[in-house]
Amino acid sequence: MDFKNLPFFDNHTHLLDPNLTSLTKKSYIMRFVHGYQDMEPWDKGVESDYTVGHASAWQVSNIENLGLVKLITHFLSERFGCEETPDAVTEARNAFIAGDPEKLKAYTKSLYDEEGIIGTVLDSHDPWGDPKDKVFPCPVYRLYNFEDDYFELLPNASSFKSLMEEMEKRIRKAISDGFKALKGHVAENYTMEVRVVSDSDAEKKLAAAQKGEDKGAVEDVFFAMYRHVLLLAAELGVTVHIHAGTTGFNRKSAAYVPSLDPFLFVPFYMSDNALTKARVVFLHQGFPYTRHAGMIAYAFPNIFVDTSWVLPWNAYAFRTNLEDLLGVCPHKKILFGTGQHGIPEIAWASAKVAKACLADVLESQCRMGLMSVKQAEKTASQLLFENGKELYKIN
After folding, report:
1. Structural contact between residues 302 and 280, judged by C-beta atoms closer than 8 angstroms
2. How far apart are CA 128 and CA 261, in angstroms?
3. Cα 18 to Cα 27: distance, rounded to the nearest angstrom
4. N or C: which end of the chain has fewer CB within 10 A?
């Protein structure tokens, strides 16, 4: 089977840098890690050019041996006809782009055209209509980070009620402006084990949450807010993306894997039938909880599973992730994303990996007589582009 000519819809990306016309070996390699670094200052984390300045030679050598770095280095060496090393591909890329933003723009378009990337869902903290959206050589559909509003409004809120009224006002405006879905980080900030907190309890704990000294109060007010947002999303018919997988970072909550299990979210989601009306995407869902996410999407009609960051970061194991999801999750509820940031090679490589792994897995099912070729082709189309277009109501 060959799906190379099928379109690809990127369910999750971050901004591309139109001025990143030159890469060093180190800056190239360190594009592919989100996580703890081994040089001070520790608090910089991913905010400092993807930790480039906070990685020792030892850490760089570790990441250089990451499967993803080997994968993209392999792809780029084939494209540029150079030696298969980070030094060679960065040198070839730099020579090809020659420090020219227009050449980078053309290069980006060629990568997207080559893999048929027809649209992308952008996670950015910029306002609606920001010109950085135009960097992508395909249609862009925006996520609205509602937690930005929450953390901005919380310190000076006179009451929980007024806080939620202002948040609701902003979310409604964002959807009216054209944002396609909402994005939040409940697991990354705290845990997937969201508690049911009443408005009256949130009101009582607001002052303590504003001071930030009482961990329980901080979480309770946040969880009460989360419930409101899910109910509002259900009313508005928009999807909520929950950052469910770990992409590392330098916060304990983001790297402590047991707190990220999507099974932990179920009691909260089931606490009110109205909450189950909200369409929820478990974002970046992969090891070790691929199966858990797939089982929840099987059980609940409005739960979806996204594989961004897993694709392509777990590239050499993506076949296993895919088999787990295809085995239990409805095929129309699996979304392919890339978790791309900064450079366009990540989306390009993701599309390649997705198509190759899909072809291998589905061909195996057909060979064993478990699926027809027609069914396999339908599944491939669903995962590669149909599911995203349907979820966001794109023609």
Report:
1. yes
2. 32
3. 15
4. C
Same domain, 93 and 131: no
Contact by Cβ (8 Å): 247, 46: no
236/230 Cα distance (integer angstroms): 10
The range of the structural domain enclosing residue 385 comes to 115-391
Q: What is the pTM of this model?
A: 0.94
Query: Does the structure show a pLDDT above 50 at 122?
Result: yes
Region 274-288: mean pLDDT is 93
Which of 31-40, 137-146, 217-226 has the weakest average pLDDT?
31-40
Is position 7 within any domain? no
Counting DSSP H helices and E strands in the chain, the numbers are 18, 10
Three-state DSSP class for residue 381: helix
CATH code, 228? 3.20.20.140
Please classify residue 306 by burial: count the beta carbons closer than 10 Å to its beta carbon, then call 0-12 exposed, 13-18 middle and 19+ buried.
Answer: buried
Q: Residue 13 falls within a domain, yes or no?
A: no
Confirm if 161 and 201 have CB atoms less than 8 A apart.
no
Residues 153 and 238 in one domain: yes
Q: Identify whether the C-beta of residue 206 lies closer than 8 Å to the C-beta of residue 190.
A: no
Q: CA-based Rg of the chain, rounded to a whole angstrom?
A: 21
Inter-residue contact 383 to 3 (CB < 8 Å): no
Same domain, 72 and 127: no
Same domain flag for 174 and 309: yes
The answer to whether residue 2 is domain-embedded is no
Map residue 283 onto helix, strand or coil: strand
**370 and 223: one domain?**
yes
